[in-house]
């Protein structure tokens, strides 16, 4: 009798542990790291991006993907910037279209990529290599300042 009771309690305990760990895991993955970049300037298609670039105004387009780990990390830094700087950046979530076609059209290989267009031509870019692979420690320590400086330089 005691073995059956102990076995039943063990099964119930295992089920509770699985349920609790699943709930905890869901809460941890839905933290601020998954927050998307907050801007009022969202581009919804390649055609809209091309129109924005050809508008002859200086523009920064942030090519991103909602499920991209590097994009999520960059979003944390972008969202810490002053709203007046953030609002100068247009975000284009490329998963709404054929990713390979978008990458070929706008000449980038991966996300995140920020491209500064001046007079309808690419003038400068920040991409995954610069932001995360080559200078990981530096960017994590001074990311907002470096990013803010780069964005402010584009305003001038």
Automatic annotation (TrEMBL):
SUPFAM superfamilies: Thioredoxin-like (SSF52833). Pfam families: Thioredoxin. Gene3D superfamilies: Glutaredoxin (3.40.30.10). InterPro entries: Thioredoxin-like_sf, Thioredoxin_domain. It comes from the Bacteria. CDD domains: TRX_family (cd02947). Residues 52-127 form the Thioredoxin domain. This is Thioredoxin domain-containing protein. Signal peptide: none annotated.
């Amino acid at each position: 009798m005691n073995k059956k009771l102990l076995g039943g309690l063990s099964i119930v305990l295992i089920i509770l542990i699985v349920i609790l760990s699943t709930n905890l895991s869901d809460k941890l993955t839905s933290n601020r790291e998954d927050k998307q970049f907050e801007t009022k300037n969202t581009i919804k298609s390649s055609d809209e991006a091309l129109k924005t670039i050809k508008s002859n105004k200086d523009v920064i387009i942030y090519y991103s993907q909602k499920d991209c780990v590097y994009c999520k990390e960059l979003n944390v830094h972008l969202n810490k910037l002053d709203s007046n700087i953030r609002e100068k950046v247009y975000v284009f979530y490329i998963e709404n279209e054929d990713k390979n076609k978008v990458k070929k059209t706008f000449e980038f290989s991966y996300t995140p990529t920020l491209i500064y267009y001046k007079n309808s031509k690419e003038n400068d870019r920040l991409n995954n290599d610069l932001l995360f692979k080559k200078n990981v420690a530096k960017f994590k320590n001074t990311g907002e300042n470096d990013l803010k400086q780069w964005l402010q330089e584009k305003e001038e």
